[in-house]
Amino acid sequence: MGCTKPVRISVSLFPSLPPVKFPKIFANFVCFCKILSSSHPIRQFLNSSGVGLLRLNGVYLKYRVAWLRKSTSYEIMKYILIGLAMIVAFIIWRIRSVGAGVKKRDAKLLLELEPLEKRLEQKANVTRDEVLGYARKPQLRFMLYALLKHFNRLDLFPDHLLNEEAQGAAKLAHWMMHPNELQDAPKEIELVERVPRTVNGQECAFYVYRYRMPEGHWAAKDGWLLGLAGPFAKGDPPYEGPAGAFSRCSDKQGATSSTELVDWFIGKATGITA
After folding, report:
1. What would the mean pLDDT of 248-265 be, rounded to a whole number?
2. Can you give the residue ranges of every domain in the chain?
3. Sheet hosting strand 59-64, strand order edge to edge
4. C-alpha angle with apex 222: 217 to 225, nearest 5 degrees?
5. What is the distance between the alpha carbons of residues 26 and 49, in angstroms, rounded to a whole number?
6. CA atoms within 13 A of residue 179's CA, in its CB half-sphere
7. What b/e readout covers 91-106, taking b as 16+ CB neighbours within 10 angstroms?
8. CA 41/CA 22 separation, integer angstroms
9. For the residues of 78-104, what is the DSSP string, one character each?
10. Are 112 and 139 in contact (CB under 8 A)?
């Protein structure tokens, strides 16, 4: 069969999705399944051209129209099943990766609190100033509060760090330390704005912070970045409520407003429109 000159077609994959790093082979497969569809414009173009040379994430694949025309439903289903298996494998990997990251992060934080834990076990004379030294690090506050509660010594926890603002900074710093996120606590973190929102019919508050990473960190060059924590509802027990935290490295202070960040988080993370 006569063939025309090979044609290169650049295909942009997942332009509207958030920046999640899918394995390259998975992205290539998804695009290839779309091409197998008889209604896909690329396949129609190939049918009229004879031979096509597709560029998929830097990989060139040559398809002959004769093979495409002979593709059966069985062959298409085979690739669909392979794709489903790859999706399941990715989900399992992601879940295990998140879980392993939580253990790694919390083990590092517990190591910092180990001297205090031993003193509490020995019923030593632990002072409020001693506990304050740990509580000044926001990434330690949640575990510190749980540790003191375990030993019935919540009286040692600093009163001025029981408010929602302090809890939000602690939640964000703790989240940032996950190996899948920024992998480290911020050098500085400051409150930018409290944003009230209604979530599930309940009046809540989100707290937006600006933070800077320490020198040498890959995000330090970006300067002040924005992150948030919430939702905090009235009556939530300190350091035990359901509030979460999130940050995107693209949200630099001055480029994104606090309300934009909160509304994006509510829509994407919880599926609820503010």
Report:
1. 90
2. 7-71, 96-270
3. 7-10, 51-56, 59-64
4. 100
5. 27
6. 14
7. eeeeeeeeeebeeebe
8. 24
9. HHHHHHHHHHHHHHHHHHHHHHHHHHH
10. no
Residues listed for the chain = 274
Structure tokens at 176: 């940032």
Instruction: Return d(Cα 176, Cα 186) in angstroms, integer.
Output: 8
Full strand arrangement of the beta sheet holding 225-233: 188-199, 202-212, 225-233, 244-252
Give mean pLDDT, residues 184-209.
94
Whether 113 contacts 131, CB under 8 Å: no
Stated pTM of the model: 0.65
Kindly report the backbone phi and psi dihedral angles of residue 16, in degrees, each rounded to the nearest multiple of 5, phi listed first: -100, 0
- Residue 170: which residues within 8 A CB-CB, separation 6 or more? 138, 139, 140, 141, 142, 239
SS (H, E, C) 166-202: HHHHHHHHHHHCCCCCCCCCCCEEEEEEEEEEEECCE
Tell me how crowded residue 66 is: count the other CB atoms within 10 A of its CB.
11
CA distance 193 to 190: 9
* Integer CA distances (angstroms), 102 to 181, 183, 184, 205, in order: 11, 11, 13, 26
67-126 tens-digit pLDDT:
444 555 667 777 788 888 888 887 776 676 666 767 778 788 989 999 999 999 999 999
Q: Where are the beta strands (DSSP E) in the chain?
A: 7-10, 51-56, 59-64, 188-199, 202-212, 225-233, 244-252
